[in-house]
Amino acid sequence: MKLRYSIFALIALNANLLANDVINLDKMSVTATKIATPTKEISESIAVIDEKTIEDKNILNIQDAIQNVPGVIAASSTNSPSPKLVIRGAGLKASYGVREIMIMKDGVPMTDPDSFTRFDFIDMQDVSSIEVQKGPGSINAVNSTGGVIQLITKSVFKEDKNSIKVGIGNDGQKNLNTKLRGKISDNDFASFTFSKREIDNSWRDNNEFDTTQASLKYGHIFKDDSTIENEVSYTESNLNLPASMTKAELEEFKKSAEQHNTSNAWQNSARNSKIASFNSKYNKEAGNVTYKPRVYFTHWEHYHPVTGMINDSSDNNIFGTDLEFDYAHKLFSKDANLVAGVTLKLDKSDDSKKYEYKDVQKNGTGRILKTLSNEKGALASTEDSSTFLYGSYMKESFNLTDKWGFDASTRIDKLNFDINGNELRAYNYSTGKYGTGKGVYSLDNSFTLLSAKLGTTYALTDTTNIYASIAGANQAPTTSELETNSDLNKTESINYEVGLKTRTEKSDTDLAIFENVVKDEIIQTQQIGSNAVYANAGETNKQGLEFNTSYDLTNNIKIGGAYTYSKFKFDTFNESVRNGGTTTLVSRDGNYLPFIPENQYSIFAAYNLANGFKTRVTARTYGSYFMDNANTQKYEGYDLITDFMIGYERQNHNIQLNINNLFDKYYAMEASKDTSGNETYKAASPRSTMLTYTYKF
């Protein structure tokens, strides 16, 4: 039976088993509906990672914060902000970075109009909470069918102590963070955050990372109680991207815990970035209407050696605004709220260049066997591009009765690509050599993107709600995908979901069952030589179940866990397979999507005493999955990767030890296979230990 019809079975659950007379204070979502709302009353699956969890786990990277959220895959092989991020199957097509998922910080989008996100310039040590919305249909999600991750930073208006945090660990880990906040006058506030991180990661070649981040916030309260909060930030990030391994090299890594001199040709990949940004948020109440305009600007540059080419881009600017208003009113004699607004965003890059690698080792035929540095060689191409997005959105939330609530939302966006370039030289994946490029090229394309959601919640008891929703959204192809296949269509994703949420004094429980039907999903195919090509699948069907729970055994002990079941398959998909000089289409109908395991789960236990002693242990398991679209081979996944924390907090002092991968297991974070049968593995980090001391004053 299709999962979309399972709402009837869910409603039939025995509510008496779920009832509890004591109501717990539910975690609040401040972004899913753009109005502060208890998560129990939101008609979609949403997870909130609070400030205590972030501090206890000493979160320095986004993947460490959300990797145990059901339905989310977040993994990095470098202990740095370069995760592979997948939500309910969305994001699989990304060769690097994050695609199909909207990342926002305090309501300001971090994701480019064509859906690419860089995590380099997000300082996780300034984040107080994280919200994860899963699936299409959110009014926050611009050109993103996978969902939204919202980062809430520490507001300049919130009373908070100053702090300094220092940490040292193995693999040359060093961390320094300081936060200063002051009241300039009764109406003026300011804060300053500075972070510095370094990691050597000497167990593997080309694996170093360092970042320097600074942020200055200023807030003012006007006489009419309206507020404005401004932030200026700067980041300099130097991230080396280590090479992947063959099957034999993975087995050697498992024995030696070292990864050196692998056979991969591209030994010197990196992403070195400098990013300066500004954003301003205004909030004003006028009767029943609240105005929330936001403006933002980002300038970034990067030096990005990747497979075949070195990207060097120094003149990139993003301009954007989101003009929102909220209207509180009555509907059906009940409180209701209307949220509406318009969005405009321009991403403009001028004179971006690509270069050949200068220092390479070749064989007798001229094939590149290995890069020896990431120094620039001959100029390969130049390009100017602009991506312009504009749109509007609206959401109405209302109650029919005291127990029965509804929300309906829609947004429409127009996305325009304008790209002009000159490719002088190109890397040929088949021959492994540089050759003559395609010359002058241009791309002028546009997509109309629709998104909508209808949801309802019903209170079975004071502690338990059920919900149901249907949501849909479009996903446009990216500029890089269009350059390889200009005939790509936009994706249409429709999600049917039912769920249950329980909040009691001692427990939280969430259950979600969904079916996501995706037409024209953009699928990546790995050809020989790590060449990625893209095509639209006819239709994919993603069915899943997500469950998470936590329970207070005593006043000091909390336990919990999460489970994800995924059945993601191609209904219709003909994959382009290259054999020599011939390309043929091969049916993958009925096959499973690669990289997505059928089963994932995690468990945790936390112990906190009134005297300040605290400890926490978390373990996660990632089941086996197919390595390619053809489903010819499976990777076994990994079992019970365990993270551990022990600490002591007293008055203004906090000292804690965090150990990730406690039992030092050696495994692949990602395994894949191209259409020629070549296997590729990316190693996960061995045991990582950091001792941190924080002083608040």
Kindly name the structural category: mainly beta
Q: Which CATH architecture?
A: Beta Barrel
Percent in helix:
under 10%
Number of helices: 5
Number of strands: 41
Shape: globular
N/C terminus separation = 59 Å
Could you tell me the radius of gyration in angstroms? 25 Å
- Estimate the strand proportion: over 45%
Average pLDDT rating: 91
CATH superfamily: TonB-dependent receptor, beta-barrel domain
Report the CATH C-level class. Answer: Mainly Beta
Question: What is the subunit organization of this protein?
Answer: single chain
Explained architecture:
- Keywords: Cell outer membrane, Ion transport, Iron, Iron transport, Membrane, Receptor, Signal, TonB box, Transmembrane, Transmembrane beta strand, Transport.
- This is TonB-dependent receptor.
- The strands form 9 sheets. This protein has a 22-stranded antiparallel barrel. Strands 3-8-9-6-7 form a 5-stranded mixed β-sheet.
- It is globular, with a radius of gyration of 25 Å.
- The N and C termini lie far apart (59 Å).
- The protein has a single domain (3-696), classed as Maltoporin, Chain A (Beta Barrel), CATH 2.40.170.20.
- The longest helix has 10 residues, at 247-256.
- A hairpin with a 4-residue loop joins strand 10 and strand 11.
- It has 697 residues and is mostly beta strands.
